[in-house]
Amino acid sequence: MDLNIADLLCQMSTAVPVDVTNVDMTAPLQDLTWDLTIDSGWLDILPETPLIEGEEGSPKSLFDTTLTLYTPSLVPDMTSPHDKALLNHYSTIVASVLSRNPNVSTNPYLSYLVPMAVSNPLILHCVLALSATHWQKLQPDMRDRALYHKGQATKSLAGLLPHVDASSVDVALVSCLLLCMSELFDGTSAGWKLHLQGAKRLLSTVKSQTSGNLAGHFKFLVKLARFLDSAATTSTCKPPLIDDKTVTTTPEPTEDSTNDDAAVYGIPKELFHMVDRVNNLASKRGTRVDEASEALFRDEAEKVQGRLDNWAYDYGGLAGAVASLSPTNDDVLHATTAFEWALRLRLHQITEGYSLTEKVSDCVQHILDSAQKIRYGSSLESCLLFPLVMAGGACNCLEQRMVVQDRLMIMERTCGFGYVHQSRELVETVWKRRETETMVNWARIRYEEMGGLALY
């Protein structure tokens, strides 16, 4: 099913006769009307929301309409031109940015979320808020729309949560995750922490009510929740909130499952979730108070290093792990390699500190070599943010800094979300302070001055 909102509007408009004799086809473009109010012709074909069966004037059937893509009662009542633009922006731009799958024909951010948004006002507010968050840097007027839709969604979600049951838990969960994404991707807000906590409670509800037998869209939501939770550990330096006790995970190597993994993670999820173990180790740095505790800490660090060295063992190595997602796309391989070296660098920093040693320089060069092999605008480009920040925070020569800065500036346009700009601000702050300080801790700068920024 083609879920392009622009196509939907085109299908609607063809059902309305237009008197072309009243249109001056020679008029300049700026003189033509772009009125998208409720009086516009294509909206005339939308019936009022059907009354409850038995009420006066209640239609006998919803199938009397000529529209087949969505039932008329599910078409959102959007009279605001801004909101129509936002929904179209989500369906044509934002959903593609969110998906890290090189195969553009399978995008769960479209196939699952758009139908849910069209059928539910709460989810629609969340989708429009996310779309406005993406657009607000290029279109400053959209900042107010983002705040408005976040406010409406938060209010509706607060009213729903005390009454969540099996029929509404998916609405509550997807709304919670979309609001979390809006905050995370903005890069300046720490509001995502509360939404992640709410998502954990809702996932526990899902587990208790479904006994682990999840429908397709629920499986996608579980993957998305775990992805966002792990992504946030780079900000919290704590273990993820959501673990195997919260959700029931049953390995199902189906095509749909693989496509969802590729869309959410981009790289093999076994490697991505190694960030959980690395940041769990980071949370224990305060225990290093004497020789005995230092020995225990280093022993655990060696275990994490061993897992990182063998993360692809079950696949027969790196090539097999990459092929499980996309056997024909080299960008997946390069993104995976860059992420692995970024994790190695982060583990070294947690264990040994932030001095620019030869091992650090080696990690930085491997990250940049892999990153430069990924084309601009690739669906895997967003996987480079964490590796680029790790390399940028540890590089010490102009050539390497230019590579990092250039790629982040490109990603500000191709990805578009504010957290990319915040990430560039972070590495540039590190470089400036390195002019006067011998050792600069990028993680401390992020923690003390950019508390809402998560790197993933």
From TrEMBL:
User: What organism is the protein native to?
Assistant: Fusarium austroafricanum
Per UniProt, the keywords (alphabetical) are:
Nucleus
* Signal sequence, renumbered to the chain: none
Q: Which InterPro entries does this UniProt record tie to the protein?
A: Fun_TF
Presence of the UniProt keyword DNA-binding in the record: no
Q: Does the keyword Nucleus apply?
A: yes
Identify the GO cellular component terms for this protein: nucleus
Q: What is this protein called?
A: Transcriptional activator protein UGA3
Q: What is the lineage of its organism?
A: Eukaryota, Fungi, Dikarya, Ascomycota, Pezizomycotina
Subcellular location as annotated:
Nucleus
